[in-house]
Design a protein that fits this description.
Strand order of the largest sheet: 1-2-3-4-5
Number of strands: 5
Order of helices and strands: HHEEEEHE
Structural class: alpha+beta
Helix content: 40-55%
Shape: elongated
Distance between the termini: 82 Å
Largest sheet: 5 strands, antiparallel
Low-confidence stretches: none
Strand content: 15-25%
Number of domains: 1
């Protein structure tokens, strides 16, 4: 009666696991990158649409023009920051070096507009830029006038 595995059997199982890991890890990393890009693009577009609707309601129905972007839009997604000094408020998602923004939403009361911008070329990797361009079919900057 044999107890345990032989050395050859153990090496064979480890070889199979190494091949599976070699295939699975790059796929997992690509999925993670695409998920981050999708989160930034959809947060920018959906946030701008939400801010536009709220701004339109406040300005036209309530005759209120003193609101700021933070009053009508709260973004809790990771990596998003608020700048109260930029126009009437701006939400932005900067790259790690904080030199450029992947996405931004700005309220401009003087033009009665919510402006959003998605910069696909701000992403570091080519695969991220391509994923961004697939998701963002519009131009880099959009004006939603209310």
């Amino acid at each position: 009666m044999r107890r345990g595995f032989t050395l050859i059997e153990t090496v064979f199982v480890l070889l199979i696991l190494a091949v599976l890991a070699g295939v699975a890890v790059p796929k997992f990393l690509a999925l993670r990158e695409n998920a981050r890009v999708k989160m930034i693009v959809t947060t920018t577009i959906n946030g701008a649409a939400s801010a536009y609707t709220a701004a339109q309601n406040l300005a036209n129905l309530d005759d209120n023009t003193t609101f700021k972007l933070k009053d009508i839009l709260e973004i809790k997604a990771a990596g998003w920051y608020y700048n109260a000094a930029y126009f009437d408020g701006a939400w932005y998602c900067p790259n790690p070096e904080k030199t450029r923004s992947y996405g931004a939403i700005v309220l401009d009361q003087t033009k009665r507009a919510v402006v959003y911008r998605i910069l696909c070329d701000a992403f570091e990797k080519e695969s991220e830029r391509q994923a961004c361009e697939r998701l963002n079919k519009e131009s880099d900057q959009q004006f939603l006038y209310y």
